[in-house]
Amino acid sequence: MKRINVHIITLCLAIGAMAQNPNDSLWHLLPYSKKGNAGIGYQEAVNMMKDKKPQSIIVAIADAGVDIYHPDLINSLWKNPLEIEGNKIDDDNNGYIDDIYGWNFIGNTTYDNMELTRQYALLNPIYELKPEAQANNPDEYTTYLEIKDKFLKDKSESKLFFEFFRTISQGVESIEKKYERKIDKSVIENHKSQNKAEELAKRMILRYAKATKSFDIESIKKDLEEGYKQYDYLYNYAYNTSFNPRIEHVGDEYYNLTERVYGNNQVYYGEEFSSHGTHLAGIVAADGTNNFGAKGICSSCKIMSIRNVPEGDERDKDVANGIRYAVDNGAKIVNMSFGKGYSDFPLTVKEAIGYAASKDVLLVHAAGNDGENNDKSDNFPHDFEDAYPNWIEVGASSWRSGSKALATFSNYGKTEVDLFSPGVDIYSTTPENQYEAYDGTSMASPVVSGVAAFVWSYYPSLSAAQLKNIILQSSVPIKGRIRIPGSKRKTRAHKISRTGGLVNLPNALRLAEKIVSNE
C-alpha cells in the first residue's frame, strides 16, 4: 500500500519537530557527510564519468502511474519503439494494445481494499463457528484468528478516526459560515462554540497553529481534509469486506494466475492517484539539464510506467505481471515502492522474481514505513530468504546526523534489509507540473534504483547480481550508535541491516570500475 506520509493526528501533536527541514532541497544528491545531509555524492559521480558516454537504461516504475506530460519527465520516458500510438493495434504482438509508455494492470481501479481485508473475507466463512474446519486445519485456523483480531482492530480504529475527522470538518464548515471576514487566530480564540463539532475544530486548529508557530487557515483546512480523506478511504473501502472493484474496473479472471493480458494502456491516472508514482519517477530520472524543478540521478535513464498499485494494497497477480511485462519489454531495473503484511499468491510473485533473475533484471524494493523489524514481521513481496541474487531491499535514512541518521518510520532487519538510502524530505516531481518533498522508504528505493541505473549505464557488462553486490559493498558504514526506528533504543546500524551502510554513488562507480577492469 502507498502510505500517506504522516497521520494527521501525529502531525497535530508533533509537527513542531517535523517542521525542521534539510539545508538543501536536493540534499539526497549531496556528498556524504558525517555532519548531516548525507547524500549519494551525485556531482562527484558526474565528474568521474565526464569523459565516458553512458548507455540508456530502462527503469520500470511499478506503482500508481506516472504523469507522462510532466515537463521534467517528458524527455525521460520510455516509448515502445515497436508500437504505433493510437492505432488500437498490437503492432509488436506482445499482447498489449498501444502500450506506448508501459501498461496499466489495474484498469480503472482507484480504491481497493487491504490484503488483510481480503484474507479475512476469504477465511471467515470457512472457519467462523465451524469447529470441524477448525479441527481439520489447525495451522490455517490459527492464522485466521490472528487475521481476524487485527482486521477487527484496524476496522474499529478506522471508524473512530473517520468519525473524528468528519466531526472536525463539520465544525470548520460551521465556524466559517459565522464570519464574513477572513478567519485569523483571534477569531478562533474568541469563538464561542455552539456544539461539539465546533469545539473540536477550534481546539484542533489552535493546536495546529501552536505547533507550527503560524496561522494559515487554508493550510490547516488542507491538512485536515487530507486526514478526512485518508480515513474515509480506510473506513469505507480498505476495511470493507463487501467492496471489490475488480470485476467492474479490471475485468480479468482474477483467480486465473496464468492470465497475462488485461487492464489498459492508461499509465497516468490523474493528480490524486498518480502522485506517488510520478514522485518516484522524478527521483530516478527528472531532467537535470534544465534550470527548474527536480533533478534525477540517472540522466540517461528512460522511465517505463507499470500501473499496478491502487489506493490500497496491491494484488499479487498484478505485481507478478508487472515484473514480467517490464522484463519482456526491456527494463533492466524494476523499482517497487509498495508492500503489505499479507500475501494471497506469494508463489506467483516468486516465479516472477525468478523470471527476472533469469533475464538479468534487478529488482529494488522498499522495506516499509512501520518502524518494524522485517526479520520478525512479513513485508511482501520479498526475496524469499535470498533465493535470488537480483533483489535489493531498501530502508530509509534521514538528512540528520549522528543517532538520528535513520528515518524514524523506516523498517529494518539484519537479514531482510540490505542498506539504507535517503528517504526523508525528498524533493521530486508530482503531477500537473508540480513538485513536492515526500517521506518514505518509497523514496529511498528509487534513490537506489537511480544509483544502480547510473552505474549500469557506464558499466553495462555487469550482471544484476554483480551490480547488487557493488551497491551493497560500496555503501558507507553508518558510524556510532543510532536510534532504532520506531524506538528510543539505540544500536549499531550493522545490527539492523545487512551492510549497516548508506548507498553511495562514487564508491559504487569505483568498485564497478575495479571489477570490470579485472574481468
Overall description:
With 519 residues, the protein is of the alpha/beta class. It has two domains: 27-112 and 258-518, Rossmann fold, CATH 3.40.50.200; 115-238, no CATH class. Helix content is 40%, strand content 11%. The protein contains 16 helices and 13 strands. The protein has helices at residues 8-18, 42-48, 115-127, 131-136, 138-177, 185-190, 196-212, 217-238, 246-249, 270-273, 275-285, 316-328, 346-358, 441-458, 464-473, 505-518, and strands at 57-63, 102-104, 301-307, 333-336, 362-366, 391-397, 419-422, 426-430, 434-438, 476-477, 481-483, 490-492, 501-502. The strands form four sheets. It has a seven-stranded parallel beta sheet, sandwiched between helices. A hairpin with a 6-residue loop joins strand 11 and strand 12. Helix 15 (464-473) packs across helix 16.
Biggest sheet strand order reads 2-3-1-4-5-6-7
- Provide the gyration radius in Å: 23 Å
User: Which fold name corresponds to the CATH topology of the largest domain?
Assistant: Rossmann fold
Total count of domains: 2
Tell me the major beta sheet: 7 strands, parallel
N-to-C SSE string, H for helix and E for strand: HHEEHHHHHHHHHEHEHEEEEEHHEEEEH
Residue-averaged pLDDT:
94
| CATH H-level superfamily of the largest domain | Peptidase S8/S53 domain
Global structural class: alpha/beta
Q: What percent of residues adopt helix (DSSP H or I)? A: 40-55%
- Which CATH C-level class of the largest domain is it? Alpha Beta
Q: What is the beta-strand fraction?
A: 5-15%
Low-confidence stretches: 1-19
Helix count from the secondary structure assignment: 16
Number of strands: 13
Tell me, briefly, the overall form.
globular
Separation of the first and last Cα atoms? 42 Å
